[in-house]
Design a protein that fits this description.
Chain A: It holds the Pfam family ABC_tran. Chain A: It is a peripheral membrane protein. Chain A: It is an enzyme of class 7 (translocase). Chain A: Its EC number is 7.6.2.9. The complex is a heterodimer of chains A (about 350) and B (about 325). By secondary structure, chain A is α/β, with parallel strands linked by helices. In chain A, helix 7 crosses helix 8, helix 8 packs parallel to helix 9 and helix 15 runs antiparallel to helix 16. Among the domains of chain A are: about 120 residues, Rossmann fold (3-Layer(aba) Sandwich), CATH 3.40.50; about 80 residues, CBS domain Like (Alpha-Beta Complex). By secondary structure, chain B is an all-alpha fold. Chain B has one domain: MetI-like (MetI-like fold). Chain B contains 17 helices and no strands. The radius of gyration of chain B is 25 Å and the shape is globular. Classes of the chains: A alpha/beta (about 350), B mainly alpha (about 325).
């Protein structure tokens, strides 16, 4: 990851957040004696919100933080635009330490660089959709004409044309969150912070909004930090996922990493119910040609279906149905490995790692 | 030390005299000795109250009645306008000089409410922002609301003298607390996630106050204004003891002469005035949603006039029409 360090748009460096009157003492105790969440609460009457979180989000990447309620993910995201001050650690936005910024610079950063979407929508009920969307430009003192033009563009991109003079409570929940999204992108910020934006919506609307968001995000290439409690959503949307538990980032990796190599039982529990068909690739479950031939003797691979290492289990399944033979995985015509029917079944079930040995 | 012999443990309070009443009487002396400083300020305020009074009385009653009905229609709708119209007609019919007296009382109430608003709103905002200040303010407000008016009547008169200004001051002391309380309550009651969103989009504390908190707290603040108006009216009889004219004075004089008829006329006048002011100020306090999200200029007589004078779209306010244009 060292290669991308210059590219990191958001960088969190050992961020701690402890809530309570004696936060500093509690922090020392936790760092030196490694107190648990409960011990800290009992001894110092402090709540550990975030525990030593370090991660980077690269330019244009969608980084999902997934965790259950109370895991500290909403607390963590509020550090990125300094709505919450960290107890220890530093947050860098494009290389600038935002904890050293003046209030004035910070306000400029929030209005121009960072857009935020909230789970509760948090639209201003006394303002029309247009006035809500134009808010961040209004506080920067942009002219009415300019900010309305930008706001109308944002409203158009979330497909809410014609609703701009309505008030938020005249809109449905899904439409309100579209307004929230439009408000976040109206000032064309380079960073989007999404705090469980779709959690409060019903499944169908959630799906629709995810699609809208992904289409927008593909088009606009914004660096996005996306909070969710829904692993399906994280896998659907995220380029990389961080799993958070009790304030700790337990594992950071691509969706495939997380699903195939869960770091601990907690993560494994989470991913148990996730379908591997689309996530796991042939390269992950294949048995190297050498070990296959050692086991079965030289194989005649003519007539075997061929696949690319990047292809998903879903594709392999389709190939496998049509034939009795195992599938050979090739790169540039050179055989790399073999996927037997057993290995394929085991891969779908989720035991990708022990394919070779067990077969 | 001498007290010790006569000190009775079962009844300790009768044998201890700290002389609080005497030292508190010093307030009166202080007030008298500082009168000269107060006089110029008093003069300005007095002229202001008199100016409001004379202008209200200068308007012919019929015109004034129509004006008040129109204001009620604008602020609270046609039904309230009818109630206000009927109530004001009754007020005028109570006795030949009831209308003029009511206008004088209205002038005092307006002056008191305006001053209350100017003092109360900033104090309420401060109380909402600062817990310590709110805690310190609360006993003061409790005192202002519960202490009998007669207690501060004397020091105020000693300091300012009798007349309109001390009437207004006495009224303010009693009528100010609900406005401060409800302003603070309204601002504290603003949805914190909306305030957080405003912060996340770069609003300064000042912008958050004026663009988010005050607009959202407006219904509560106007409920405070309504309460302040009602409490001001309830003070007019007491204020008339320090030579404030108007309906209250009628009641006071009738009481002195045991003239029940005149007292009823004055009392009913105050009640009718209260009903009128209550309905109008409550109408202003309605939230946007209750009004169906129409702007104030879209309803009532102004809306009617606008619709008649220009070919306006009924549902879209002029501002929205203007802002909707940059659509591309």
């Amino acid at each position: 990851m060292t290669k991308e360090t210059d590219e990191a748009v958001i960088r969190c460096d050992g961020v701690w957040k402890i809530f309570g009157g004696r936060a500093d003492q509690a922090l020392q105790a936790v760092q030196q004696q490694g107190l648990s969440k409960e011990e800290t609460r009992d001894q110092y009457d402090c709540v550990v919100g975030v525990r030593d979180a370090s991660f980077e989000v690269r330019r244009g990447e969608i980084f999902c933080i997934m965790g259950l309620s109370g895991s500290g993910k909403s607390t963590l995201i509020r550090h990125i635009n300094r709505l919450i001050e960290p107890t220890a650690g530093a947050i860098y936005i494009e290389g600038r330490n935002i904890n050293e910024m003046s209030q004035k610079d910070l306000r400029q950063l929030r209005a121009e660089k960072i857009g935020m979407v909230f789970q509760s929508m948090a639209l201003m009920p006394h303002r029309t959709v247009l006035e809500n969307v134009a808010f961040s430009q209004e506080v920067r003192g942009h002219s009415v004409k300019e900010r309305n033009a930008n706001a109308m563009r944002a409203i158009h991109s979330v497909e809410l044309d014609g609703w701009e003079s309505k008030y938020p409570d005249e809109l449905s929940g899904g439409m309100q969150q579209r307004v929230g999204l439009a408000r976040a992108i109206a000032a064309d910020p380079s960073i989007l912070l999404m705090d469980e934006p779709f959690s409060a919506l019903d499944p169908l609307i959630r799906r629709q909004l995810q699609d809208t968001f992904m289409a927008l995000s593909a088009e606009m290439k914004k660096t996005t930090l996306f909070i969710t409690h829904d692993l399906d959503e994280a896998i659907r949307i995220g380029d990389r996922i961080a799993i958070m538990k009790d304030g700790v980032l337990v594992q950071i990796g691509t969706p495939e990493d997380i699903v195939t190599n869960p770091a601990d039982d907690y993560v494994a529990d989470f991913v148990a119910g996730i379908s591997k068909l689309e996530l796991v690739s042939a390269g992950k479950i294949m048995e190297p040609v050498a070990s296959y031939e050692q086991r079965r003797g030289n194989a005649d691979m003519t007539g075997w279906p061929e696949a690319h290492p990047e292809q998903s289990l879903d594709d392999l399944l389709n190939l496998s149905i049509a034939t009795q033979h195992p599938i050979v995985v090739k790169i540039d015509g050179r055989p790399l490995g073999v996927v037997t029917k057993n290995a394929l079944l085991r891969g779908i079930k989720g035991g990708a790692d022990d394919t070779g040995a067990a077969a | 030390m001498e007290n010790e012999e006569t000190f009775n443990w079962l009844d300790p309070f009768s044998s201890v005299d700290l002389g609080i009443a005497d030292s508190a009487d010093g307030v009166k002396q202080w007030a008298i000795s500082n009168r000269d400083v107060i006089q110029p300020i008093k003069q300005v305020f007095n002229e202001l109250v008199v100016a409001i009074d004379t202008s209200l009385n200068a308007v012919p009653p019929t015109l004034m009645l129509i004006l008040l009905v129109l204001i009620a229609w604008q602020a609270a709708g046609s039904r309230t306008a009818i109630i206000v119209g009927v109530a004001l007609t009754c007020l005028g019919l109570l006795s030949p000089d009831a209308w003029g007296l009511a206008m004088t009382t209205l002038a005092i109430v307006i002056a008191a409410v305006v001053v209350c608003f100017v003092i109360g709103l900033p104090l309420g905002i401060l109380a909402a922002k600062n817990d310590t200040f709110e805690k310190m303010l609360r006993p003061v407000l409790d005192t202002m609301q519960t202490i009998p008016a007669f207690v501060y009547l004397v020091p105020v008169v000693m300091l300012v003298g009798i007349g309109n200004v001390s009437g207004v001051i006495v009224t303010i002391i009693f009528a100010l607390p609900p406005l401060i309380r409800l302003t603070s309550l309204g601002i504290r009651g603003v949805n914190p996630s909306v305030v957080e969103a405003a912060r996340a989009f770069g609003a300064s504390p000042r912008q958050i106050l004026f663009k988010v908190e005050l607009p959202l707290a407006t219904p509560t603040i106007l409920a405070g204004v309504n309460q302040t108006i009602m409490l001001s009216l309830s003070m007019v009889v007491i204020a008339s003891m320090i030579s404030v004219k108007g309906l209250g004075n009628e009641v006071l004089r009738a009481m002195g002469r045991l003239d029940a008829g005149k007292a009823i006329v004055g009392g009913l006048g105050i009640v009718i005035l209260a009903i009128v002011l209550d309905r109008i100020s409550q109408g202003m306090g309605q939230s946007g949603r209750e009004r169906g999200h129409r702007h104030w200029w879209q309803g009532g007589p102004v809306g009617l006039a606008l619709r008649m004078t220009g070919p306006k779209n009924e549902t879209t306010p002029p501002a929205a029409q203007a802002t909707a244009k940059p659509e591309t």
